[in-house]
Amino acid sequence: MRYVDDLTGALKQQLALALGIKDQLGFALRQKLREGYTIKDFRADAMAGLVVGIVALPLSMALAKATGVAPQHGLYTAIIAGIVCALLGGSRLQITGPTAAFVVILEPIVRQHGLGGLLVAGMMAGVILIMMGVARLGRLMQFIPHPVTTGFTAGIALVIGLRQLPDAFGLELASKPEGLLGFLEAVWDARGTAHWADGAVCVATLGLLIGVPRIIKKIPAPLIALSVAGVVVVIANHFWPSFDAATIGSKFSVVIDGETVRGIPPLPPLPVVPWHLDGGEGGAFTLDYALIRALLPSAFAIAMLGAIESLMSATIADGMAGTRHDPNSELIALGVGNILCPFFGGIACTGALARTATNFRAGGRSPIASVVHSLFILISTIALAPLMAHLPLAAMAALLFIVAKNMSEARHFVRLTKIAPRSDVMVLMTCFGLTVVFDMVLAVSVGVMLAALLFMRRMAIITKVTLDSDMPGDIGMPPGVRLYEIAGPLFFGAANVAMETLETVGNDAKVVVLAMAKVDVMDATGMVALESMLDRLQRTGKKVILAGMRPEPYDLLHRAGINRIPGKLAFAPDVDTALSMAIVHTARLSA
Questions:
Q1: What is the 3-state secondary structure (H, E, C) of 217-270?
Q2: Which of 202, 344, 347, 382 might form a disulfide with 269, Cβ 3.0–4.6 angstroms?
Q3: How far is CA 580 from CA 63, 118, 179, 502, 586, in A?
Q4: Which residue has the higher pLDDT, 424 or 228?
């Protein structure tokens, strides 16, 4: 019968878990519909979706190209993720799609394992994200220290910017080494292959991207800048063949029904099997345990960075719009999006802060705005594919230069190095250096570890043990009685340090009172450290009274068998009662 009860209990837990996931999905959309969704709201969402779609269209292609895959894969990501994550997610204004932060993680995967490996890694990251959401770890992402996120964000921006140099100046690299330092060496060696036309297009596009927003506010600068650059390149290539600036059509092509199509295929995202695509260096792709193990660190980095960026974007959107998002719903939706995108040729996705902010400024009110943005990109992919083939690569490199510049927050980075505590500066520079010199997988892994160590260190500093002689005011301790107050969490990062203070208990003390009313949390390490200290004091003939213990620490000690022992260990509801008990005990010893 007991086994039946255990099985029934397990089934009930699984059912509750499944219902919890169901309740989490679509949090933002259900919340908006309960408040009421009108025609006026739809018009505002439709207009905002069109504006965001205009911004996302060239950016999605540029980010896919920077990753090392054909531009259409970025479009497919924006289409699928923009719909799925919006309808299932926890943020009203979030726009999900490819982002610059992922470039430095995804590019090495493409180089080593090809498009197939990239899509499989995205799927694995999706599984991790769903597990994080189900485990309700959304709130924990808020505890990643600011120096960690600022460090690898600035590092990502620098890497993205430097890796646009070949397209910006038409360089022909003999090879593409993995590390940034090797890449820069290859760029320097290829300096003689620079093409003046590409450089001119890049500089002109940069000028438009910087200057247009100061004159024209209502039309997104990338739309104007890239359109002008495309028209100029088409005219120049026609009348001056020597101009020959590289375009999407000259760089990328796809075979459809036996016919080679230059640039973007005029098709919607079609179902594909990710592991049936090409592997690294044009070889066959083989999905096996060894490959999954090789991709796991990258998948973890994608999941962690995606969670951080998406939840950060949702939080900022809440601050702008006065809304409230569900972080666990957002993680689950992001996981579902990353699992579905690869089956339509889409790469890894996450919440895009710039596009989300654009959505708010354009008047977006609900997840429907993201759906409209995706539909706009879908229609543009089919209808405007021949025109997008004429977009110059140098112009897209210029766009990514602006993205990297905005992403870096250079002034904020420099300011932190000047005003932050030394430990934070060390974490900041470590994450920045690892991202630039090595890769994002290592930077994210070390960053998360540093976040945990930094948290533990600061919590250990918070936990203090104060002797009665150091307490403010005149306590007037009875002879033979010593009072120690423990304040702060007694966990593995602080327990041993806190207990070391009790080594100062003198031989003249007959009773030691531990005031523990300010100990809210105690873990197994804290319990063991306290038990060892109690044992040491009891072996020297001292009685210990634990005063004012909170319910959770008390229950932990009770389960560990640390209970009242006459003459050795006692519990008191408060310090005054404990001191009265101590006086009675010392009087008995003196009698």
A1: CCCCHHHHHHHHHHHHHHHHHHHCCCCCCCEHHHHCEEEECCEEEECCCCCCCC
A2: 344
A3: 71, 69, 69, 21, 10
A4: 228
**Token pair 């992001």: residue:** 334
427 within 8 A of 161, measured Cβ to Cβ = no
Specify the 3-state DSSP secondary structure of 545.
Answer: strand
Q: Are 341 and 74 in contact (CB under 8 A)?
A: no
Alpha carbons 17 and 7: distance in angstroms, whole number: 15
Would you say 401 and 393 are in contact if contact means Cβ atoms under 8 Å apart?
no
3-state SS, residue 510: coil
430-436-440 Cα angle (round to 5) = 80
Q: Give the model confidence (pLDDT) of 103-152 as tens digits.
A: 888 988 998 888 999 999 999 999 999 999 998 888 877 677 788 888 88
How many C-beta neighbours within 10 Å does residue 261 have? 18
- CA-closest candidate to residue 400, choices 79, 125, 104, 85: 104
Q: Which of 70-84, 252-266, 305-319, 425-439 has the lowest mean pLDDT?
A: 252-266
pLDDT, tens only, 384-396: 989 898 899 999 9
Separation between Cα atoms, residue 61 and residue 68, nearest integer Å: 11
User: pLDDT class for 7, splitting at 50, 70, 90?
Assistant: very low
Q: HSE-up of 497 (CA within 13 Å, CB side)?
A: 17
- Rounded to whole angstroms, the Cα distance separating 304 from 78 reads 20
- Residues contacting residue 246 through CB under 8 Å, at least 6 positions apart: 167, 170, 195, 198, 392, 393, 394
Q: What is the CA radius of gyration of the chain?
A: 30
Domains of the chain: 10-407 (no CATH), 464-590 (3.30.750.24)
User: Which of these, 28, 404, 393, 451, lies nearest to 199 by C-alpha position?
Assistant: 393
464 near 183, Cβ under 8 Å? Answer: no
Number of H helices, E strands in the chain: 24, 9
Continuous segment of H or E residues that includes residue 487: strand 481-487
**Which is more confident, 517 or 496?**
517
Tokens standing for 43? 């018009």
Distance (Å, whole) CA 379 – CA 223:
16
Alpha-carbon gap, residue 471 to 466, rounded angstroms: 7
Give residue 264's Cα distance to chain centre. Answer: 31
Helix (H) or strand (E) holding 111: helix 103-134
| Ordered strands of the 481-487 beta sheet | 464-467, 481-487, 511-518, 543-547, 569-572
- Contact assessment for residue 465 and residue 485, using Cβ atoms and an 8 Å cutoff: yes
Evaluate whether 339 touches 85 at the Cβ level (below 8 Å): no
* pLDDT one-digit tens code per residue, 12-60: 454 444 445 556 678 889 988 998 999 999 999 999 999 999 989 999 9
- Given a cut of 60, is residue 85 above it in pLDDT? yes
Q: What is the pTM (predicted TM-score) of this model?
A: 0.78
Q: Give the whole-angstrom CA distance, residue 295 versus residue 575.
A: 57
